[in-house]
Amino acid sequence: MSCKEEKTEIIPEEIVEVKEEPLPDIRYGFNFDNYKVINDTIRNGESFGIILDRHHVFYPKINEIATTIKDTFDVRKVRAGKPYTILASKDTTEAAQIFIYKLNKIESTIINFKDSVINAYTYKKPVKIVEKAISGKIVDNFSHAIDTLGYGASLANEIADIYSWTVDFYRLQKDDTFKIIFEQKFINDTVAVGYGKIKAAVFNHKGHDLYAYRYVSDSLKGISDYYDAEAGLLRRQFLKAPIKFQYRISSRYNLRRRIKLYGNKVRPHRGTDFAAAYGTPIMTTASGTVVESARRGGNGNYVKVKHNNTYSTQYLHMKRRKVRVGDYVKQGDVIGWVGMTGNTSGPHVCYRFWKNGKQVDPFRQKLPTAKPMIDSLKPKYFEFISPFKKQLDSIPLPQIEEIIKEENTEEKIIAIKN
Asked: Of residues 156 and 254, which shows the higher confidence score?
């Protein structure tokens, strides 16, 4: 008996293409696919009511919305220039149902009046915090160096605040260097929305390293401050200058100053002149109470602040004053703006300094420091800063330089990040 070999027929498997369903467009907690989406910006003269009326919400309903949410959000405070999103129904009415008022890149006020229950609340986009480490070289000024590295002026301002008691940013020299470890905030992983903590930094100025470390020395109060490599507090009772940076000292305290305009007669100058651009903010160099705020004679617009029974400071020739007599101002608060009022030939602030009722040169005074760290806390502090110091020391300094041709054909060299 013979066996015939069986043949197996192979049938090709049918290929079925499976289409993936698109993911829903979820934003601000809503499925945008379910609405007609209108993105716009509030124009001059527009109000919350005008906007909703244009999107088919009648005024009785608008008044009900405004009244219901008044304790949470005052609809009268919407401002021209602010962006907003309206989620409207997809039916023939296309009536607005949700109003999203964007306060900034992170926060929005959401007003939901889709159903019978009307409510308003703040929505915050998830923020991702990324630690960054950068280094740079001073060629022009510090703010320009930070800008060249691709970071905003607010980072430069925060660093300037940390070092404002110990570093005169006007006196930074070409080839001084800096390294900074800081936090940067992002939404959607790519959109930068500001900065977090400045964790550590070091300036090399005139060959000396000036370290700054953020540290909470009092765990009960939880207040952070910045200390140097020896646990010395960077904060002092007085700032180095009433202007952050981008100024020059055009005239110093000099009791024997002679002025050509007045026939070379001796005319004592009991202040220090900080020349800066017209309108530059002027800061109080220490906390205290405003005892004078007026416009008078050669002083022009001026402010005087009493800090305690020993020290007072005065700021002359302001364009405009921001504070009144009796106001309490904190160190670094803006009290006015650089101007040319009174006897002055150019925009500057004349900074005057009193000690025990007598005008003195602030740069020749041994000024008091803030309360130092107690000795028992120092070992823990040194342990805390050790990894930050290693990280700072390992950050390479910029090696690449970009040469930019100026209009006058001179070359300006600006350090850029590694």
From this structure: 156
Report residue 387's pLDDT band, with 50, 70 and 90 as the boundaries: very high
Residue 139's pLDDT is what?
84
How does the average pLDDT of the chain come out, rounded?
Answer: 85
Find all residues with CB under 8 Å of 327, minimum gap 6, and list them: 289, 290, 293
Helix (H) or strand (E) holding 381: helix 378-394
Cα–Cα distance measured from residue 246 to residue 151, given in angstroms and rounded to the nearest whole number:
18
Taking the CA atoms of residue 272, residue 275, residue 280 and residue 281 in that order, the dihedral angle to the nearest 10 degrees is -10
- Asked if 253 and 269 touch (Cβ cutoff 8 Å), the reply is yes
Distance (Å, rounded) from C-alpha 194 to C-alpha 153?
Answer: 10
Name the residue with tokens 């609809």: 75
Element (H, E) at 310: none
CB 288 within 8 A of CB 305: yes
- For residue 162, what are the contacts with CB-CB under 8 A and spacing of at least 6? 198, 201, 212, 226, 234
Please state the pTM of the whole predicted model: 0.65
Cβ contacts of 53 within 8 Å, gap of 6 or more: 59, 62
Least-confidence region, from 170-184, 269-283, 310-324: 170-184
> Rounded CA gap, 184 and 154, in Å?
11
**Which residue is associated with the tokens 């430069």?**
156
